[in-house]
Amino acid sequence: MEKQICGKVIHVNEEGYLTDLNEWTPEIAEELAKEYDITLSPRHWEVLKYLQSEHKNNVPLSIRKIGKSNVVDIKEFYALFPQGPLKISSKIAGIPKPASCL
Amino acid sequence: MKRLVILGAGTAGTMMANHLHKSLNRPEWEITIIDEKEEHHYQPGYLFLPFDIYEPEDIVKTIDEFIPKDVHLVRSGIDKIEADSNKVLLSNGDVLHYDVLIIATGAKIAPEEIPGMQDEAWHKSVFDFYTFEGSLALRNKLREWEGGRLVVHITEMPIKCPVAPLEFAFLADSYFKNKHMRERVEITFVTPLSGAFTKPKATEALDHLLAEKQIHIESDFAIERVDSINKKIVDYGGREIPFDLLVTVPTNKGDECIERSGLGDDLNFVPTNKATLQSLAHDNIFVLGDASNIPASKAGSVAHFEAEILTENILRFIHGEPLKEEFDGHANCFIETGGGKALLIDFNYTHEPVEGTFPFPGVGPLRLLKESRMNHMGKLAFRWIYWNMLLKGTHIPFVSATMQEAGKEF
Lengths: 102, 410
Known about the structure:
By secondary structure, chain A is mainly α. Chain A has 5 helices and 2 strands; from the N terminus they run ββααααα. The longest helix of chain B has 19 residues, at 300-318.
């Protein structure tokens, strides 16, 4: 389905996750972050860039893995993206929600 | 003479030994397969053992009986792979040179990754069912358990057979109903993901099962530790979930020999081309089954489809031809839902499980993503297929290595 954001039309799935990372821009990330009352700081951006690069390398993400990444520890990850940090940060980064096969 | 070495005689390695023994030129090539174990386990049976549906003898055979006579079976642990000099160092001190190496060392649980998981409560009130020992200990516990809070838990992805924990919860519901004690058991399913189902079509088709079976869901739970004294699991955000009986799927990791060889990622899975199954670091190393890091499910059916494609790619590699980028992540799994019913799902890298018919488009006889008794019979029949066809590398009629799109409702 389509979503209008920052004057652009982007493609998202039923839960609002971008289906094409190429449509992602920093402005879109800022708008998506607002939906969770998050204002993106330089630390947020570092985490988002890391998530995008792991996704491009087909690396499955987990909170523990991110905690061991040397980019952010788990406590700070929760502080940056409260209430389900992995699924919220994934959405803002424009990558799919971590999923199982079913 | 040239030598092809297979590391691991589990599902994936055994299938490859059978495929290659038929298709590699003899006597130009010698095939050696290495495993320290004596027994081959039908791992899907670990799901049924706790509920007294299978007995241990249903799921254990010897490794020997599935390895062709002219393939050398070396019974030793693997110390490490020296990929730059094409050598495998064995725990028994021997050194094996290879021309082509297939890594099929699988994945296993690593409960030591989570503080408190493997302390004195391990296999007393905290259980896994991804090992024979764990599954059998859990059977004995369930036989005498009088009820309380059963928590079924996934630590983190990726895990082998990602739907097995949910199947466990469904079968537990049936088991306690049959024992006339369901009202004394509270079943909670705890997942690090956003729900028991994470794909839109599956959620729509199957979410009702959870309510019907009164399975309570706790999602987005990233476990930090097990507090076995106070019988609760605690997540990084401070959430706590109490249990009387914890059935957990610990972190899954690749074999330690991969770490010792410097060939793995931080979970010891080998970076692998997801379409050709060739290792990203070394041209003459191929990776099959759970040992790789490809974004397909870690499941026997995936290894089966991979094996058909990898056999062809190894022959191409040996003849200096370009590899086929053919593997599409195809998986095909029966999923127990309890009460003598099961689902069947068929999917790949790009297509999530959807409704439809299988294997014949529009005909079936099996229905995809729908509960039925026939699918349950299929799951039980699959054990025979595993021992008699799958391991021996026999093609299963009408089921192609890549996913078929016809007959599916995308």
